[in-house]
Amino acid sequence: MVAVVQTVAFEGVDARTVDVQVQITDGIAAFTVVGLPDKAVSEARERVRAALKGIGLSLPPGRITVNLSPADLPKEGSHYDLPVALAIMTAMDVLSPDDLGGRFAMGELGLDGSLRPVAGALVAAMHAAGCDMGLVCAEASGPEAAWAGENVDIIAAPNLLSLLSHLKGRQMLLPPVAAAIEDAEITADMIDIKGQESAKRALEVTAAGGHNMLMMGPPGSGKSMLASRLPGILPPLEAREALEGWMVASLAGELLGGNVTRTRPFRDPHHSASMPAIIGGGQRAKSGEVSLAHGGVLFLDELPEFSRQTLEALRQPIESGRAVIARAAAHVTYPARFQLLAAMNPCRCGYLGDVTQACNRAPRCAADYQGKISGPLYDRFDICVDVPQVSASDLHLPPPAEGSAEIAARVKLARNIQLERFAAMAPGQQPVMNAQLDGKLLEAIAGPDKAGRALLLSATESMRLSARGYHRVLRVARTLADLAGDANVLKVHIAEALSYRRLSPHALK
Ligand SMILES: Nc1ncnc2c1ncn2[C@@H]1O[C@H](COP(=O)(O)OP(=O)(O)O)[C@@H](O)[C@H]1O
Ligand SMILES: [Mg+2]
């Protein structure tokens, strides 16, 4: 007889159903796992053997063959332990095929039979919901899996023995309860920043329209400080964005415990991070920082210090909102719609333009340093601002009148205008921020008035804007009009948007 228990394999944020088939036949004692298992899956044998022994079950003598089907799909991770154990118990007639009653199983086993949480419980539970199935998982994964909805029948057991008792109706386990939404409290407030009015204004525009922004200025001028204030002025995630983000976080093992948040993610990887860490990839095609920042902000501090390869690889997710990772057999896709925020010094010593402090290689060193960022990447920043050194007199000023709360309120208003307009002009489509408007819709929504158009045309010529640059100016201008509450994009908005455009040093040479 072949016993079958179903589980899932993850491909990006998608889950696929996997049958765990077990056959026990007479012959020389052996325990083999086939069907493209990785090391962790192969090692399931030892954990399953010990866990079954822990509840008083010895493996039967003979050949145990475990087949993970479809056989050409790579199986990775330790969550196959539980389905393998359950399928073996079914083959041994300890469980009847109906006991699991249409549920997927996932979970790692300890040698003592305890069930450990694994990454991806929410994704598995959502897949179960789509297949009209339930899910058996570790108790600790329960609060995360329960987010898939009340109509998914979830059993969350602390160990194999209590699961067995529950399935046999001897001792009932309580259904898991979805963990609470815990919105992070953001303590960094704009009120701490003295002076830097133009950078603060640019940050507000960036937040309002979902734009990409680059800050350039000498060390200690407050760039990192400004960046850390961005999450505090962004509105919470919309329900759909939040769910997509939770799926990525679930697979990355960041939802263990089940506490989800609607606070927009703010990821600030160090510049020594490798390309797979940022874009995604590696042996298991894991999601990278760009996907963990989905719906939020990816902050790259000291931008030119990142490897060139990583920076160039960022271009594709910036444009498409997805990170596509090539594997030997297939492509894996993760959502990656983020706002890119970057900060850099103007040159290696950082004091370009400051006669007293600049090194003796200026201005040559600036061209070298800024040239580490390619033209196409510069082109993708909608907003570039200079963050000059704050003067001592600025630092002595009283705190500014408004803090993050007031700015956040204006950002929220501008975002609401965008959402309502989008819903009216493109009903049924997924709403996007100004920064992602494209094609006809961009023309219809952000087409400037006559004077604005004339200015844009002449600036396109004189500033040698690329087509991408031209469209990015339009998008920023639309956000400026939304912040001002203007229905149309006017010349002032185009003018301000143009002031945020920076020519790449490649063009200046
Ligand atoms: N505009 C400012 N207002 C108040 N403090 C500032 C300002 N700019 C810089 N600072 C102080 O200088 C420190 C260093 O700033 P930081 O943001 O790390 O500079 P950068 O990233 O530009 O090198 C901050 O922690 C803060 O104490
Ligand atoms: Mg810094």
Which helices and strands occur, and which strands form pairs?
Layout: E1 2-11, E2 14-25, E3 30-34, H1 39-42, H2 44-54, E4 63-69, H3 81-91, E5 103-105, E6 108-109, E7 115-116, H4 121-130, E8 134-138, H5 142-145, E9 154-157, H6 160-167, H7 197-209, E10 213-216, H8 223-228, H9 230-233, H10 239-251, E11 266-267, H11 275-279, E12 280-281, E13 286-287, H12 289-292, E14 297-301, H13 308-320, E15 322-326, E16 331-335, E17 339-344, H14 364-370, H15 375-379, E18 383-386, H16 392-395, H17 404-425, H18 439-446, H19 450-462, H20 467-484, H21 491-499, H22 505-508
Parallel strand pairs: 3-4, 5-8, 8-9, 10-17, 10-18, 11-14, 14-17
Antiparallel strand pairs: 1-2, 2-4, 6-7, 12-13, 15-16
In a nutshell, what does this entry contain?
By secondary structure, this protein is of the alpha/beta class. 39% of the residues lie in helices and 17% in strands.
Textual characterization of the structure:
The protein has 509 residues and is of the alpha/beta class. The protein has 3 domains: 2-167, Ribosomal Protein S5, domain 2; 190-400, P-loop containing nucleotide triphosphate hydrolases (Rossmann fold), CATH 3.40.50.300; 409-508, no CATH class. The chain has helices at 39-42, 44-54, 81-91, 121-130, 142-145, 160-167, 197-209, 223-228, 230-233, 239-251, 275-279, 289-292, 308-320, 364-370, 375-379, 392-395, 404-425, 439-446, 450-462, 467-484, 491-499, 505-508, and strands spanning 2-11, 14-25, 30-34, 63-69, 103-105, 108-109, 115-116, 134-138, 154-157, 213-216, 266-267, 280-281, 286-287, 297-301, 322-326, 331-335, 339-344, 383-386. Strands 11-14-17-10-18 form a 5-stranded parallel sheet. Helix 2 (44-54) packs across helix 3 and helix 20 (467-484) packs across helix 21 (491-499).
